[in-house]
Description:
Residues 209-329 form the Probable transposase IS891/IS1136/IS1341 domain. Residues 13-44 form the Transposase putative helix-turn-helix domain. In the C-terminal section; belongs to the transposase 35 family. By secondary structure, the chain is an alpha+beta fold. The chain has three domains: 10-24 and 139-205, no CATH class; 27-58 and 66-118, no CATH class; 215-463, no CATH class. Helix content is 36%, strand content 19%. The protein has helices at 24-57, 73-87, 96-118, 171-179, 244-247, 249-260, 278-312, 323-326, 333-339, 342-355, 400-410, and strands at residues 10-19, 139-142, 148-149, 155-158, 162-165, 182-192, 195-205, 218-225, 229-233, 238-240, 266-267, 272-273, 313-319, 358-362, 388-390, 397-399, 431-432, 446-447. The strands form six sheets. It has a five-stranded mixed sheet. Strands 1-7-6-2 form a four-stranded antiparallel sheet. Strand 11 (266-267) and strand 12 (272-273) form a beta hairpin. Helix 1 (24-57) packs parallel to helix 3 (96-118) and helix 7 crosses helix 10. It is globular.
Amino acid sequence: MKRYEAPAGWTVQAYKFCLDPADEQSLRRHAGAARFAFNHMLGRLSAVKAQRLAEASYGVAEADLTPWQGWSLPDLRRTWNHLKHPVAPWWRECSKEAFNTGLDALARALANWAASRSGKRKGRKMGWPRFKGRAAARSVRFTTGAIRVDADRRHVVLPRLGRIRTHESARKLARRVEAGTAKILSATVTETAGRWFCSFQVAVKRTIERPAHARRLGRVIGVDVGIKHLAVLSTGEMVDNPAPFTAALKRFGKAQRRASRRIGPYDPATHRKRTPSNRWKRAQTQAARLHATVAAVRADAWHQLTTRLAQQYDTIVMEDLHVAGLKRNRRLARALSDAAPATLRRQLRYKTGWYGSVLHVADRWYPSSKTCSRCQTVKPKLSLCERTFHCDACGLSLDRDVNAARNLAALVRHVDLELPGDVKTGRGACVRPVSPAPAGRAVGVEASRPPAANAVRQRTAADHELSNAQ
């Protein structure tokens, strides 16, 4: 499906509401229809793929092989409309958007597989799509038809599903739609931990206004993320890490032991699958809800921090952490996953554009922890167990995380006072290295601004000038 491009002055964001459906079976039916369409069309394409491989093994020429069936979304829709009467005679019970959800997911999966195979797609290698089982996440997306928030602001209206009550008021979205500053593009209904949610993709008109000077606590703030503390600021403030998963470890163990004593889908005696009991399903739902609670606590902590930083500071400087590489250390993997440090950059990308601030990302190899924030002398070695930074040149003694945050803040020497919104590309912050510093001094590199709601334009390197700390 073609990606929506927001016009100048508009941005795309999500409004997510928990649902209290009276007819939950209808939601399950639509999600099952999406899965059925995905699996059926994938089965046909897999059969063609297997036939071509068999023919090639017998020496059949490439031109004489069984032709591929088109796997673009229009081709899949055309084939499905031709086959839906015999293979799914119940198709009228569901909205056409349910089947389109599965076909769109299959088209994107096949496109990723083809791009990865040809080398056009970066990242890990993508394999051939796999069939979705009944235990897969239930989801259905609506892009056409009646999609709106009801007048009472306690119900949402979706095609074929009708009015569904929300667990909370949807007035935030309703007010924007009524004022003409928001337009609903699509709605996605998903099931998570036994609860149903409706996420609206909305184009929102935003006017970026810099907060009053009295609300700003400082021009530049450096942020050093960690495990013991969620973040350490250059002001010396240390934000505690709630560590929700670590705090709930005993509850997780109890929930898993409870599920292990019940009849699950696998029989260890016969090594065969079996029908799980309802008690086992309830135990799995309880464990899933516990995971959802942990994720909510973690997300709330990050949202509070990133919103405060974007509102109170003109410029935010953070380091470019290779979180996936750090998680290879088995002693830190669980603590890193519990802290989710990559969330800071992801949230600041769009919040800085909302609140009129700027995000800089230091180079991944910038030695912020080994550099003295007073004299800029770089220590050759600094083990992870050394929590206090001692400078042999000037005698500075400081917490290593506070020292790193101060070095990050000192990278930015010149801050432009224009409105934010300047980015090199339309998505995310992009790293642009600058010329290295003289030998023996700390080297700093910087990232461009994050995307914002206003116009996107190129920026010269002189606008974001970095240097070593004075």
